[in-house]
Recover the amino acids of this structure.
C-alpha cells in the first residue's frame, strides 16, 4: 500500500531532524559542552522513523543507550533532550541522567537504558499493562544485536508469546557491539530465525530503507493490535560514527564505512520521493531548513539554560 504524501514528508523531515540533532550533539561534545558519553546513530534513522510512523501518541517504546533517534521519532522534545545532554536543569531528567536516560512517559517514551538489553523487561511489562487494561496500545522494544544474545530476551519473549502480549521486539543490527562484529558473536546468520524458538513471527528487513521498514513493521503492529502476540523484527543497519566519540574504530575499515554510506537512508528516501513526485526538491530543502532551525533553537535553549542546583543532587534518586 502506497504511503500517503503527508506521511512520506513527515518521515523525511523526522529522519533529517534525527541526523542533524546528532551532528550538533557531536559538535557540542567535541567542544566539551555535552556531559557524559553520547552514542550517536547516524545512518540508522530509517529504523525508528519507519517504525514510529505506525504508532499513536498512546503507544509506547522502550529505548537503548543509542536512543536519540527513537525519542525524536516518537515525539520527544529536542530542546529538552539537548538540555539534558548538556547537563542543564531544564533537561528531561533535570540534567542528571544524560544521554542514556532520556524518558518522556507522556510521549510514550519509557526511557533509554545504558544496560545492554535492559529495556526488554520494561517493554514486555508495559505490553502486559496494555493487555490487562484493554487499551489497544502496542509497545516497541528497541535493542541492538548485542542485546539479541541476552538472556533477558529469551525469558521475556517466551512469556510474551505465551500470553500473546502486544510487543514488537525490534533489533537494530548495526553490525558491531562496541567493537565486536556480529559475525563473531552470534551463531546464526539470520537473527530473525530465533523467533521460531518462541513460536512467534520473525522477519528481517533492510534497515537502511525506511520504506521497507515501514512495510515490514506494519504487519507486526497490526498483529499485536489484534491480540495475536509479539514479533521479532531484525533491521540490518549501520552506524557511521564510532561506538562513542572516543572510539578509534580500529575494528573496521574506511572502505567498509564508505560502502554503507552509499546506502544512506535519507538520500534513498529523497530519491524515492522524487520518483513518486510526492514532493519537490524545494519542498524537501524547506523541510531540512525547518529541522536545522529547530535543532539550532534546541542548542541555544540548552546553552542558556541554568545549571542544576547542587542542593537538589539527592532528589529524584530512588536507589
Amino acid at each position: 500500500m502506497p504511503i500517503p504524501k503527508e506521511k512520506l514528508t513527515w518521515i523525511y523531515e523526522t529522519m533529517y531532524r534525527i541526523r542533524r540533532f546528532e551532528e550538533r550533539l557531536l559538535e557540542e561534545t567535541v567542544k566539551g559542552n555535552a556531559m557524559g558519553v553520547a552514542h550517536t546513530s547516524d545512518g540508522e534513522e530509517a529504523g525508528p522513523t519507519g517504525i514510529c510512523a505506525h504508532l499513536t501518541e498512546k503507544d509506547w517504546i522502550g529505548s537503548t543507550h543509542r536512543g536519540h533517534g527513537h525519542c525524536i521519532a516518537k515525539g520527544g522534545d529536542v530542546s529538552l533532550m539537548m538540555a539534558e545532554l548538556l547537563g542543564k536543569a531544564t533537561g528531561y531528567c533535570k540534567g542528571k541522567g544524560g544521554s542514556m536516560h532520556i524518558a518522556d512517559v507522556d510521549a510514550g517514551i519509557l526511557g533509554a537504558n545504558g544496560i545492554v538489553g535492559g529495556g526488554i523487561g520494561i517493554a514486555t511489562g508495559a505490553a502486559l499493562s496494555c493487555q490487562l487494561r484493554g487499551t489497544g496500545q502496542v509497545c516497541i522494544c528497541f535493542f541492538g544485536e548485542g542485546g539479541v544474545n541476552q538472556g533477558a530476551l529469551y525469558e521475556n519473549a517466551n512469556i510474551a508469546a505465551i500470553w500473546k502480549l502486544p510487543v514488537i521486539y525490534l533489533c537494530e543490527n548495526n553490525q558491531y557491539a562496541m567493537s565486536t562484529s556480529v559475525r563473531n558473536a552470534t551463531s546464526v546468520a539470520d537473527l530473525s530465525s530465533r523467533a521460531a524458538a518462541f513460536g512467534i513471527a520473525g522477519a528481517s528487513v533492510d534497515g537502511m530503507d525506511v520504506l521497507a521498514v515501514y512495510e515490514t513493521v506494519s504487519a507486526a503492529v497490526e498483529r499485536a493490535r489484534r491480540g495475536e502476540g509479539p514479533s521479532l523484527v531484525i533491521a540490518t543497519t549501520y552506524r557511521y560514527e564510532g561506538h562513542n566519540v572516543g572510539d578509534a574504530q580500529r575494528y573496521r575499515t574506511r572502505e567498509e564505512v564508505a560502502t554503507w554510506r552509499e546506502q544512506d537512508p535519507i538520500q534513498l528516501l529523497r530519491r524515492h520521493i522524487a520518483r513518486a513526485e510526492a514532493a519537490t526538491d524545494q519542498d524537501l530543502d524547506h523541510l531540512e531548513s525547518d529541522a536545522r532551525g529547530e535543532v539550532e533553537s534546541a542548542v541555544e535553549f540548552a546553552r542558556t539554560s541554568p545549571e542544576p542546583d547542587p542542593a537538589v543532587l539527592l532528589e529524584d534518586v530512588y536507589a
User: Anything to note?
Assistant: The first strand starts at residue 60 and ends at 62.
